[in-house]
Amino acid sequence: MMSLNSRKRLILQAIIEDYINTAEPVGSRTISKKYLTSVSSATIRNEMADLEEMGYIEQPYTSAGRIPSDKGYRLYVDSIMNQNILNAKKIEYIKKEFMETLGEIDDLIKHASKLLSNMTKYASIAMAPQYGKTRLKHIQLIGIDNFNVLSVIVTDVGIVKNSVIRMEESLDIRTLDKISNMLNDKLTGLSLDKLNDLDISNLTSEVNGYNELLIKVLPELFQALKYSDKIEVYHEGAANLLDLPEYSDIQKAREFLNVLDEHDLLFEVLEDKSEDLSVTIGKENKITQLKNCSLITATYSFNGKVIGSIGVVGPTRMEYSRVISLVDCLTENLNDILSKVLKT
Amino acid sequence: MMSLNSRKRLILQAIIEDYINTAEPVGSRTISKKYLTSVSSATIRNEMADLEEMGYIEQPYTSAGRIPSDKGYRLYVDSIMNQNILNAKKIEYIKKEFMETLGEIDDLIKHASKLLSNMTKYASIAMAPQYGKTRLKHIQLIGIDNFNVLSVIVTDVGIVKNSVIRMEESLDIRTLDKISNMLNDKLTGLSLDKLNDLDISNLTSEVNGYNELLIKVLPELFQALKYSDKIEVYHEGAANLLDLPEYSDIQKAREFLNVLDEHDLLFEVLEDKSEDLSVTIGKENKITQLKNCSLITATYSFNGKVIGSIGVVGPTRMEYSRVISLVDCLTENLNDILSKVLKT
DNA sequence: GTTAGCACTCACACTCATAGAGTGCTAATT
DNA sequence: AATTAGCACTCTATGAGTGTGAGTGCTAAC
Predict the structure, then answer these.
(1) Could you give phi then psi for residue A87, rounded to 5 degrees?
(2) From B110, B140, B254, residue closest to A239, measured CB to CB
(3) From the CA of A7, how many Å to the C1' of D4?
(4) Measured between beta carbons, which residues in chain A are less than 8 angstroms from residue B261?
(5) Can you tell me which residue has its alpha carbon closest to the C1' of nucleotide D9?
């Protein structure tokens, strides 16, 4: 019976790591010379034939070396590879970068994304906080002048969209405050998603005479909130991938870049990640255009609640160990900063 | 004496337009067959030799056809090409797309950028409104809870950054209103750029006891405003360019994509455009990495004041006429919407 | 001033041979 | 029974050599 004994695992590891470095199919001689010097290439060949039969490696064409299959990478990531230990300098660097970022969460995430692509040399993708899942903390209507009202919505993770509402009738400060207070009373603590489903008419009874604001304007505002969640997806460092031989074929490069420009697809990819850190390899991806790619994503949270995710996209021939440790360290810092910045 | 007679101009036009379509050097026979059927190829050859001597066209190598030089394109754009007339459907389409956009200016610009790259099939770049040049209309401090103050800054073109400020000391609503009012009195009408240079200490005398807010927090806030102007540069449709033969060389593609990821560079490019509509061809670009590209940009304004710009980047072999008319139509609509949405 | 004719140039596509890396199998070795 | 040496075989990548065709510049005729 053919089993995945420890030598086979060593060989698989050797193949994967060599392939990750060189992007060239790995031959038996290379392994016997560079990795398992005590064994002859003939022996390695036999083992490789077995590994191929088991589906962990494949041959691009007859009499070429072997390259890892998605299944091979999966085994590697799950139980073969060594954990990469980030050196202190890098950790320090990440910390420092984060400390220097000022501004809102959005900026923080953008910065993190840029940092990630710079450090990994792959592309990074990120979604801004999904406010839908956060709770309303404060809503305030502010009169700017006679006919313009500014609405500001604050959630437990910070500020969200806010917009200027143009009114037909003029409202004085006193009235606006009154309405604000009423809205705060009724709505604070609700998740923004719920605001959408809310029956506004319940509220109107209490503040009569300002129907325009309540019935026409607010629902629109809430709708805009929902919409804005979807478009806040970024990517950075796409150009990095063009250096890799995987994308020396323009056609492939183009296909990949197209995915990055489709915010809907990216959103889909990032949205359904619930684990802390997730590795998706090649065909495991639901998105067809990403079947040649691997994704390493992590979620970031606030108040114990996941509010978004960020990650790295690259070819399946990715430096998993290195990237995982980077993503891990980065999100740790990110979460840290978030909890500090947003602390109530 | 060699002069740029009207036949030479026709030939130059033929060369440029054929080259724009095919990306292949254009030969004398092609021109005599497709464009100037009444003249023989030999004559065309003579004229082409002249055009080359004058610097309007060049030969990639001996005995190849001719391609336009930057100088040739320049002449073409300035005084040869026919103005493209957009068909009604396209105009309608642009109008419709704009009508359906809701949300803030930023979203509007992003949408416009996307629209532009989709319609032109080149890449588009855009900068969000430069608030620095706009005037403060309203500033408001809102207490969210005991230790968090939300500051909102409204300008004459809409909303800008606003941020939650965490305070050491608790401030009640009354106090915040008092400070808000004071700030409004003093600051309304100033351009945001000026806020930075402002001597805060002037203000403190009037509201004693709240030094933390005024001296420590506000300057930081203003600083953040300045910073945020720079990073709001987008690009869309980079992948479009990969379809062009100009970028079949990965190296070139990579170089170009890098520029797009460098927000500082893009900012620089977009910032110094003051004309209504500007065409920059090849080496006319200051940015070295764009010396092979042409740029067609336009500014958008509000209240007669230019607040940002948006444009198209592509190879020098660009469909100038078509793109110019699109950019023109688009910014016209954009300005239109802006003036309606923001009308006070 | 224009055109036909012609020799010349050069990139590109194509073929073909060779080298080299790697395999799988068999037989010998441990 | 597991390992290894040896060998024939396969397939790609590389580079040289060749032919083709588009295009030119020049000259001489119209």
Answers:
(1) -75, 155
(2) B254
(3) 17
(4) 236-239
(5) A63
Sign of CA dihedral A159, A163, A164, A169: negative
The verdict on a CB contact (< 8 Å) between A161 and B103 is: yes
Q: Which two tokens stand for residue A265?
A: 């697809």
Cα of A201 to nearest chain B Cα, Å = 24
Both tokens of residue B56?
């309007």
User: Where are the strands (E) in A42-108, listed by range?
Assistant: 57-58, 67-68
How big is chain B by its Cα radius of gyration, in Å? 26
CA distance B94 to B323: 14
Q: Are A51 and A43 spatial neighbours (Cβ–Cβ below 8 Å)?
A: no
Distance, in Å, from the CA atom of B148 to the CA atom of B163, rounded to the nearest integer, reads 10
Q: Do A344 and B247 touch (CB under 8 A)?
A: no
pTM of the full structure: 0.88
Helices A88-100, A105-120: crossing angle, 10 deg rounding = 150
A165 pairs with which residues across the strands? A149
Mean pLDDT of chain B: 87
Q: By C-alpha distance, which of B294, B297, B302 is closest to B327?
A: B297
pLDDT digits (tens, 9 = 90+) for A228-259: 666 688 899 999 999 999 998 888 999 999 99
Local confidence band at B202 (pLDDT 50, 70, 90 cut-offs): low
CA angle (A161, A164, A169) in 5-degree steps: 145
The span from the CA of B232 to the CA of A103, in Å, is 13
The whole-angstrom distance between residue A242's C-alpha and the CA centroid of its chain comes to: 21
Tell me the nearest-neighbour CA distance from A137 into chain B, angstroms.
8
Chain B, nearest residue to A145 by Cα:
B344
What is the three-state SS of A158-219? EEEEEEEEECCCCCCHHHHHHHHHHHHHHHCCCEHHHHHHCCCHHHHCCCCCCHHHHHHHHH
C-alpha distances (whole Å) from B28 to each of A74, B63, B70 are 60, 11, 20
Count other Cβ atoms within 10 Å, centred on residue A324.
Answer: 20
From B124, B139, B267, B149, select the one nearest B198 (Cα to Cα): B139
**Contact predicate A303/A276, CB 8 Å:** no
Instruction: Report DSSP state, residue B19.
Output: H
Given an 8 Å threshold on Cβ–Cβ distance, is A145 in contact with B344? yes
**Spatial separation of the C-alpha atoms in residues A260 and A264, rounded to whole Å:** 9
Check the CA dihedral B100-B106-B112-B113 and report its sign: negative
A:B CB pairs within 8 Å? 112
Q: Taking the C-alpha atoms of B267, B272, B278 and B283 in order, what is their torsion angle to the nearest 10 degrees?
A: -80
Residue of A nearest to B220 (CA): A102
Residue A15 pLDDT greater than 90, yes or no: yes
B144 touches strand D (CB under 7 A): no
